[in-house]
Amino acid sequence: MGTLFFVGVLIAGLVVGSKWLRKKEQMAFLDSDVDDGVLLEKYKVSVGIETVVPQATAISRALPSETPFRLKEIVLSEGHRNLLQTIEDVLEGRFRVFVHLPLKDFVDGGSVLEGKEVSYLVCDPHYFNVLAGIDILNKDATETHFLRELFSEINKPLVLFPKKQIYTDEEVRAKLQFFAGAEQKCPNCTSSMEKRKLNSAAEQWVWVCDNYPRCKGHLKIT
Ligand SMILES: [Zn+2]
């Protein structure tokens, strides 16, 4: 009975003690907050509000954020944005253009593809079949070489543009001639067709039915 009483007192003591500690902690926190407020007020008066706000913004940016996610101020560089708009104007909505697409999203090829991407990937708007890659020539020639090899291997064209800020409709249209008349219909089943390069040494392109291999419809491009 004596032990039970002792345990009871101990528990009650702990509860009261922890509540007191918590209260003390809260008060200390509030006091520090008030101090900061007072300091800030004094600071504002001494340097002027127009100095305080930019400084506070700079400090909040420098502080580690609660989550690691922050919206980027610029999603696409000016040149990339301009080229995308020009491509979309030229393609007139007949194709879907994906931007900065990781290569591993549309090519099987293991870890060598890790971290690599193509600036734009043109796909047909219904089945999202890959039609062509578009990229900007950058200083790193090995990256461009890798893309060239990859697109040659997957048998899809890769269109390359020089790196700059402004692209005209004319130059983009000239390089995307490839897509002109891409509304070709299969002579067998009337579904749409896709241009493909034959595996011969000579650059021979043919229209191949989208239903290949179920449908063997094809047309030579002369
Ligand atoms: Zn067909």
Per-chain topology:
Blueprint: H1 2-47, H2 49-62, H3 78-91, E1 96-102, E2 117-123, E3 130-136, H4 141-153, E4 158-161, H5 169-175, E5 193-197, E6 205-209, E7 218-220
Parallel strand pairs: 3-4
Antiparallel strand pairs: 1-2, 2-3, 5-6, 6-7
The structure holds zinc ion (ZN).
Account of the 3D structure:
Helix content is 42%, strand content 17%. The chain has 222 residues and is α+β, with helices and mostly antiparallel strands. It has three domains: 61 residues; 102 residues, Trna Endonuclease, Chain: A, domain 1 (3-Layer(aba) Sandwich); 39 residues. The strands form two sheets. A four-stranded mixed sheet has the order 1-2-3-4, sandwiched between helices. It has a three-stranded antiparallel sheet with strand order 5-6-7, with no helix packed on it. Strand 3, helix 4 and strand 4 form a beta-alpha-beta unit. The longest helix is centred in the first third of the chain and has 46 residues. It starts with a helix and ends with a strand. The model has no long low-confidence stretch (mean pLDDT 82). Zinc ion binds next to loops. The site of zinc ion (ZN) has 8 residues, from loops.
